């Protein structure tokens, strides 16, 4: 993995957003690489700038300083090579479950022949437990089902990159665990490069090859941790003593950053 080509490169990335009180720095001097086939999780306090980091790779936000390269070229727009799963923007409310999954496939027409589309739609509806809801609109689905639909849409297109922002946040514990295993399964078969934002330390360790811990806002890299478990990864890594040690260490770092962020919020409201 360490010798695989670099696919995503953050080079001294900074972002300032305008506010009533002047520019607010959200990212500061963020530099790291993501290599082909890596699974990198980003973890840090709420509101520190993680989604903004992801939005730059997605092509939705331009950095104020530095740059992000995708396969050596600066990212300037979204593209079908990047499957994006954001909590809020995952599904089109005016399309049914089936149509939502089909939509992405039609956009990626070059890569998914028409004859295969119906089969692909059926397959992902089945995998996500949505087959009985094929003709339902998202507003008639639960939050968890909508999230599974967003996952189905992204996976069906088989993008090279998956950019996932808390993709399992609205799911109950059982479904979350099933969706984590399904993701590992999809990666094992299709080999993708993944960036995942999560608030769950356990999820980050269970899924990732590396974990980037970021600081309170403005997000900087606090540390990058190599996960010592290979793939395919089995449920029983949870019982490995190294898993527990790593969880305690990362929780400690994240709690320190949450405390720093909370102090900032108090100062802002003074
Ligand atoms: N387009 C924007 N314009 C102005 N401010 C923004 C914009 N996008 C995000 N922000 C602000 O930047 C800060 C970081 O937001 P971001 O969504 O990146 O954080 P986050 O770490 O992903 O948070 P969470 O974990 O709660 O999802 C927040 O204070 C947010 O209000």
Automatic annotation (TrEMBL):
GO molecular function: ATP binding; ATP hydrolysis activity
Matching InterPro entries: AAA+_ATPase (IPR003593), ABC_transporter-like_ATP-bd (IPR003439), ABC_transporter-like_CS (IPR017871), ABC_transporter_ATP-bind (IPR050166), P-loop_NTPase (IPR027417)
Domain ABC transporter, first and last residues per copy: 8-241
Entries under SUPFAM superfamilies matching the protein: P-loop containing nucleoside triphosphate hydrolases (SSF52540)
Record key words, sorted: ATP-binding, Cell membrane, Membrane, Nucleotide-binding, Transport
Pfam families xref list: ABC_tran
Domain of life the protein comes from: Bacteria
Family assignment from sequence similarity: Belongs to the ABC transporter superfamily.
PANTHER family in UniProt: ALIPHATIC SULFONATES IMPORT ATP-BINDING PROTEIN SSUB, TAURINE IMPORT ATP-BINDING PROTEIN-RELATED
Protein name: ABC transporter ATP-binding protein
């Amino acid at each position: 993995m360490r010798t695989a080509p670099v696919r995503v490169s953050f080079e001294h990335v900074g972002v300032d957003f305008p506010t009533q009180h002047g520019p607010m720095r959200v990212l500061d001097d963020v530099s790291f690489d993501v290599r082909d086939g890596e699974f990198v999780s980003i973890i840090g306090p709420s509101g520190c700038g993680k989604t903004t980091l992801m939005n730059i790779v997605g092509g939705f936000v331009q950095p104020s300083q530095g740059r992000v390269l995708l396969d050596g070229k600066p990212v300037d727009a979204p593209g079908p090579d990047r499957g994006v799963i954001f909590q809020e923007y995952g599904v089109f409310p005016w399309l049914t479950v089936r149509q939502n999954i089909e939509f992405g496939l039609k956009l990626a027409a070059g890569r998914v022949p028409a004859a295969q589309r119906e089969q692909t739609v059926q397959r992902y509806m089945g995998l996500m437990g949505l087959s009985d809801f094929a003709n339902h609109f998202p507003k008639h689905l639960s939050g968890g089902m909508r999230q599974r639909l967003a996952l189905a849409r992204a996976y069906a297109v088989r993008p090279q990159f998956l950019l996932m922002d808390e993709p399992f946040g609205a799911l109950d514990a059982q479904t979350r665990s099933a969706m984590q295993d399904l993701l590992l399964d999809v990666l094992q078969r299709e080999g993708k490069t993944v960036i995942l934002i999560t608030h769950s330390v356990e999820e980050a360790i269970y899924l990732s090859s590396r974990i980037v811990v970021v600081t309170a806002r403005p997000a900087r890299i606090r540390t990058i941790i190599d996960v010592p478990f290979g793939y395919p990864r089995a449920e029983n890594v949870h019982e490995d003593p190294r898993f527990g040690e790593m969880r305690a260490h990362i929780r400690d770092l994240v709690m320190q950053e949450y405390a720093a962020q909370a102090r900032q919020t108090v100062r802002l409201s003074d």
